[in-house]
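2 proteins. here.
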Amino acid sequence: MSQDPGDRPDIRVRRTRAQLRSALLSLAGERGYQKVTVGDIAEHAMINRATFYRYYEDKDDLAADILVHAARSTGRSSPITGGPLDMTARIASGALLFDHIAQHDRLYRPLLAYPRSRRFLIRARSLLGDLVQERIDAVPKPAERLMPEEMVVTFAAELFLGMAAWWLENGTAHSSRQMSTWFTQFLFFGYFNVLGLDDLLPRPPHRPGP
């Protein structure tokens, strides 16, 4: 699995992981993901294969790390502060992530679009789930959860992966900002909101005053 050796990765570890991410992005852009081997990645990053396997199980594991690294980087523009959510900032940060996917289409299309890579999806779902959990943990916890956190985390990760796959399969016909807007609306408000059917939702019962 793509875990840093030790609890706190040093500069050398971070540099090596960055070199490996850069190598796969570059090679996939040139040749297509399917034609890139672990040996190619190691050679391009100027490390040996044994070093590669210290950090990643295989190239799918590295690809998942690239996606989550991008999600973490773009998410910094919409931090969770515990106050009201800035939806404009969240849409903008999401658009950057969809931009990343479109820019590296030759990496992500073989992994996300049909037929999908099961190993990649399992790893990406897990890593994205960890990232979602971090953001949930950044806000005060209510006295009682209406839904298990594990279900929320899984849904959020699956929603993003599913939307990204659909986008790639349909030739990225919609803008990255539009995709981010739909993702944000669906994640935070549900599918009736995305479909413009808010008027069909039941209204909360009127609460008489004291």
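next one coming up
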Amino acid sequence: MTRRSRAVRGLVTLLAALLTATAAPATARANTAPEAPADFVALRTVDPTILQEMRYFTPHNFVGAPVDGYLQPVCLLTRPAAEALHRAQEELLPQGYSLKVYDCYRPQRAVDHFVRWAEDLDDQATKGEFYPDVDKTRLFEDGYIAEKSGHSRGSTTDLTIVQLPALATRPYVPGETLVPCHAPQEERFPDNSVDMGTGYDCFDTLAHTLDPRIQGRQLAHRLLLKNTLEGLGFVNLAEEWWHYTFKPEPYPDTYFDFPVSTASLTTAD
């Protein structure tokens, strides 16, 4: 091949690479900056009365260990989402209830951790609680695990309702006997939440918000959470009674990867 031919071929390769890059879908855009945009806040600075039990900072989750990217047990959200939660809390407190968040902004590295865990079919340590009736080979196909999460865009939160005064909950002890997440509330791992019919992060169709098998006070609790949040701009994920996204999202196409830590915030909190 002549020097001229090699040069032409190199130019063609470069142009092809540029075309491929510009054709990448915007919805897959990632942001790996070490700091959050200026409109991300710590929820406690907007409403310190909302309870926080950040499960992925602890070993009490379906992975069975603290999840990558959670450096502190804090809830970070875009300011519009945090302020909408504050308004929801103002509606619930006079009724004798408080919101409690389990998860808020979730970095992409945490989602990647979920994917690695789901692909490791030998790791079944948490099956007894979080996916007792689902074969782990189906977690992707059934939609329980995905390579992208709306949480990484900063306006999605997992949460529940607690009746006041809030009771203390005992710490989870790694290795303790696990109870299915869809067992009766008095048998499940103790949580000071009202009875929602299943525990948090329950990989089961009973966790679908309006599953017809959920009735009575369990349904009433789900509807109290749903009606309160939807009246303030949140949208529920029908497959998870705990999952809500504030709309419109400030970053609908960006998946952030800064750590969950107040140090990631660009404004003083």
